[in-house]
Amino acid sequence: MILCLGPLSSGKTLLLKNLQSNENIDNTTTAVPTMGTNIFKIRIQDSIYEIRELGGAMAPIWSMYLNNVCKVIYVVDASNLCQISAASVLLYTILVNPALKNAEFLLVLTKMDVSYRQMRNEALLMLQMKRLQKEVKQNITITEASAISGEGRKEILNWIKNDKSLVNKKQDKN
Ligand SMILES: Nc1nc2c(ncn2[C@@H]2O[C@H](COP(=O)(O)OP(=O)(O)O)[C@@H](O)[C@H]2O)c(=O)[nH]1
Ligand SMILES: [Mg+2]
After folding, report:
1. Per-domain residue ranges for the chain?
2. Architecture of the CATH domain 2-161
3. What residues line ligand 1, using a CB cutoff of 6 Å?
4. Which of 22, 48, 76, 146 has the most beta carbons within 10 angstroms of its beta carbon?
C-alpha cells in the first residue's frame, strides 16, 4: 500500500486526482470528504497502484494506517510557508515511526504554479531536509509538482512504479 499524507489542504486530493489522468480515471474511487480516507486507484501501464490519502485532520491517528506501507508520498504546499513548520513536525513523526523504517519517501512540494521557484529552497530549509536526510535511514526523494499545470506528474508516476526497494537499499549508516 502507498500512503499519501500531508497537512490539511496541502493539495493531496487534487494531486492524486491529477495522477489519475483522464484515460486512466477509475470511477470506483471512493470520495470520502475531509475526515475520512480516500483510496485512489492509479493505473500505470498494466499495474494498478492503490494510494490511500489520509486527511490532515487525521494526523493524530495516522499511525493506525502504517502497516504494510511500502511508500509514502508526503505533500507539502510550497506556496504556504506558514504551514511548513507544522508539516515538518508531522513529517518527522512519521519518519521515525518504526513501522515505516523500510518505506520509501517522496516529498512533493506542490502548488508550484502559484509559488516562486526560490520558495522551493526556502521550503526545504524550513523543513530541515538536510538534517532530516542525515538523521533518518529512509530514502527521501524530493520533487516539485502542480496539480494545475501537471508539473511533476511524470516524476511522481515513475517513483510510484519504480520498485527500488530491492536493488537500491540505502546503506546503513554507522
Ligand atoms: N494553485 C494550485 N492550487 C492547488 C493545487 N493543488 C491543490 N490546490 C488547491 O488547494 C486546496 C486544497 O486542495 P486539496 O487537494 O483538497 O488538499 P488536501 O486537503 O491536501 O486534500 C484546493 O482549493 C485546491 O484547489 C495546485 O497544484 N495548485
Ligand atoms: Mg484531501
Report:
1. 2-161
2. 3-Layer(aba) Sandwich (3.40)
3. 6, 8-14, 56, 110-111, 113-114, 146-148
4. 76
